[in-house]
Amino acid sequence: MDVAVGTFNLNNLFSRFNFQAEISAVHPVDDEERLTSSYVFDDPKRVRIRTYKGKLVKGIDPEEQKVLARRIREMDLDVLAVQEVEDIDTLRFFVAQHLGGAYPHLSLIEGNDPRLIDVAVLSKFPVGAVTSWQHAVHPDVPGKRVFSRDLLEVQVLDPRDPDKHLLTVFNNHLKSQFVDRATDPEEGKRLADELRTRQADTIVRIIGERTRPDGRYIVLGDMNDSPDAPTLAKLAEPTGQLSLTEALAHPEETREPKPDNPPPPASGAWTHRFKERGQPAKYELFDQIWLSESLTTRHKSSHIDRRTNHGGDGSDHDPAWVVLDL
User: Fold this and answer.
1) 179 falls in which pLDDT band (50, 70, 90)?
2) 231: which DSSP letter?
3) What is the predicted pLDDT for the residue at 175?
4) How confident is the model at residue 308 (pLDDT cuts 50, 70, 90)?
5) HEC readout, 19-36
6) Mean of all residue pLDDT scores within the chain
7) Which residues form the Endonuclease/exonuclease/phosphatase domain (predicted)?
8) Is the CB of residue 203 less than 8 Å from the CB of residue 150?
9) Whole-angstrom Cα distance, residue 169 to residue 120?
């Protein structure tokens, strides 16, 4: 049985509403009378306004949602790990409205991000245990949670025999490359790299404790760094317990990338494009799929759905997936 498993950063998939409140009464207005009313939302138990750094968090544009949904439908994956989703209700609404309920099994646990962006897994196959590792810490900083968002562990079951474990996915969204303008750029980058390194170390430790050497599992998501970056060295470093292989070195692209100067990597191994003003564009494989040793031998093909414009189609990330013979 061929099984397609992928990852896609949905670029702030928030709900349609910026606030919620309850208004007990609305003043009546006569046909010939115009009346302006003011309502004060000052009860924290009845009002929720989503802000980040003093700005309202707005829902993703409906047309952008349609583009995201089209790309997901066209990929037609069995299991899809996603990042940057506000909450489970937003995900349910998106799947019902735009994907025709194609993914009946949704997993999302609220994580650590102050911007309310969580990781989730959509599956056509039944799901078993779902575990959040958002409380994990690193020994270097034992008093602070290590994951910016979460490490979400989801057991996927065999649709032919729901009592049988098919594979486990570990969905990630590591510390971004973003450095606040108020922070020294070099110091900000150093701190971000340190955190990403601790996150990768923790992922390897958890997987080593949770899996067997012959286990079927996939580590995937938005790693916010290149597979060969020093920050992700632990993922690429074989140990006695686990050996991971990044599966997107030579993917099949759904279409030719748009011309650029300099051109994107000829290998096609990129999912993220960033262009600073006055600087050449940078192409990075931020979205990765690492296969356990037992799945490497079952790996049939790798794919990236290529964007049609430099800014991206609904997201600044391109989705990637693998096909496995299970």
Assistant:
1) confident
2) G
3) 96
4) very high
5) EECCCCCCCCCCCCCCCC
6) 90
7) 66-317
8) no
9) 11
Q: Which domains does the chain have, with CATH numbers?
A: 2-24+59-325 (3.60.10.10)
Which residue bears the tokens 């013979």?
325
Give 144's pLDDT tier (boundaries 50, 70, 90): very high
Cβ proximity of 304 and 271 under 8 Å = yes
Q: Which residues pair with 5 in a beta bridge?
A: 79, 322
Separation CA 116–CA 27 (nearest Å): 35
The string over 228-241, giving b where at least 16 C-beta atoms fall within 10 Å of a residue's C-beta and e elsewhere, is ebebbebbbeeeee
Of 165, 176, 166, 3, residue with least CA distance to 80: 3
pLDDT class of 261 with cuts at 50, 70, 90: confident
Query: With contact defined as beta carbons under 8 Å apart, do 315 and 321 qualify?
Result: no
Name the residue with tokens 């003093």.
54
* Cβ(193)–Cβ(232) below 8 Å: no
Question: Could you give the CA distance from residue 258 to residue 312 in angstroms, rounded to a whole number?
Answer: 11
Q: Which residues contact 258 (CB under 8 A, 6 or more apart)?
A: 307, 308, 309, 310
**pTM exceeding 0.85:** yes
pLDDT (tens digit per residue) in 5-63: 999 999 999 875 545 555 555 555 555 555 555 556 566 666 555 666 666 666 678 88
CB 7 within 8 A of CB 318: no
The length of the chain in residues reads 326
| Residue 143 buriedness (CB in 10 A; 0-12 / 13-18 / 19+) | exposed
Structure tokens at 16: 């349609």
Confidence (pLDDT) at 79:
98
CB 6, CB 81: distance < 8 Å: yes
